[in-house]
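Technical annex B. To support the medicinal chemistry partners, we prepared a structural model of the target in complex with magnesium ion, based solely on the information shown next.
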Amino acid sequence: MSGVNEIRSTFLDYFKSAGHEVVASSPLVPRNDPTLMFANSGMVQFKNVFTGQEKRPYARATTAQKCVRAGGKHNDLDNVGYTARHHTFFEMLGNFSFGDYFKEQAITHAWTLITREFGLPKDKLTVTVYSEDDEAHALWKKIAGLPDSRIIRIPTSDNFWRMGDTGPCGPCSEIFYDHGDHIPGGPPGSPDEDGDRFIEIWNLVFMQYEEAAGGIRTDLPRPSIDTGMGLERIAAVLQGTHDNYAIDLFAALINAIAELTSVASDGPMKASHRVIADHLRCSAFLIADGVLPSNEGRGYVLRRIMRRGMRHAQLLGAKEPLLYKLVPVLTREMGRAYPELLRAESLISETLKLEETRFRTTLARGLTLLDDAARDLVSGQSLKGDVAFTLYDTYGFPLDLTQDALRARGVSVDTEGFDAAMQQQKAKARAAWAGTGEAATEKLWFPLRDRVGATEFLGYDTETAEGVV
Ligand code: ATP
Ligand code: MG
Ligand code: MG
Ligand code: MG
């Protein structure tokens, strides 16, 4: 059985021997790109290389990229704990060609790596292509010898990638592993494709066109390749499980949580173990890359993730801060590949401990309030927005924490009511200031109050680089 660390090396070594430069992961906070909240795919650090604005001394590269998808366009936060394949933080393995090789070689590399190096049986693999991409369809047939029934044409934007509103774009092709009919879910393109039976392991993007304003497409003179494979997903396949949370790395974290809380990780509290393990890992990597919990922007995403993890620790009955105790397990599993974790180990532990110590008191009181307010609600009903707002404003519950707390019971939150309560409070605060003649103070104070009090920082929503679709 190959561990996560070995699988990462096998991937990078394979592409290195195929002439690719092994490039380190970029930090999670993208440099020079204020529009993107976190690196969310391998191509982010190469964006300007693909557009030709930046030259590198190599035309082929391979990376294991740290990614976070917990805000903005790609937000997998709500999937964590509920699907077997999504994390907030994950590693994306990729190979890139900057105007060098194209479709045929990209497909050949992908097929060779998964069937020869990783030894996956051909009959478990299904691929998708963009419906109009006859070339990719023919190449899969030729290279992999797959029958037509397992080269599925997908007409939607899921299989057409764009860097932004204009710029490089092109069809893509996704490789799925069939974990077997004992797992619910259908093949890609079918109505129940969101199940965990057919899991997408690798996405190949064929950057083939340049799109100008008005949707006019021209062929790129030197097309490029961008691919992304989820390390945790391929590890699950290679370790004989359909469940990302059962791989060696997560098993170590989840076992530690079970030991520290004395709550079994395979019983009814399974989702809490997963959420804690995932959120702890994401928080640690964000802190190591310089993000600290705060009330806006990236820091608020971190705070939301930490606090959600902390509520699940509370659900497991933890009597004292728990998350920081898992840091040594994480550094043992991932510190060799990511030395920044070791360098920041004490900062990570202290930040987690302080936040959890502070939040635990209001968390307990807020949960009592929430229990009282939601006691009589049944599936399909929603919690009043002003209660969610009090939880937010007085008890420090991010909105999604409240939503997460009610989700298992099928109860939602009246988010319009929540927003209205927020606006009302802002208006009240303004009225209280009116007539004091302190116009200058008001100008300074309100923008600050609005920013600090904002539930979600919206400034990053217009992401320009989207990464792999
Ligand atoms: P899905 O459809 O399963 O959400 P995706 O199409 O959004 O995946 P891509 O943007 O194509 O994912 O990213 C490339 C690869 O990264 C995917 O094929 C998958 O293996 C992996 N990946 C994507 N999102 C996650 C996540 N939240 N957690 C773990 N791995 C992920
Ligand atoms: Mg996705
Ligand atoms: Mg997909
Ligand atoms: Mg994809």
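Notes passed to the chemistry partners:
Residues 158, 174, 200 surround magnesium ion (ligand 3) (CB under 6 Å).
Residues 437-469 have pLDDT under 50 and may be disordered.
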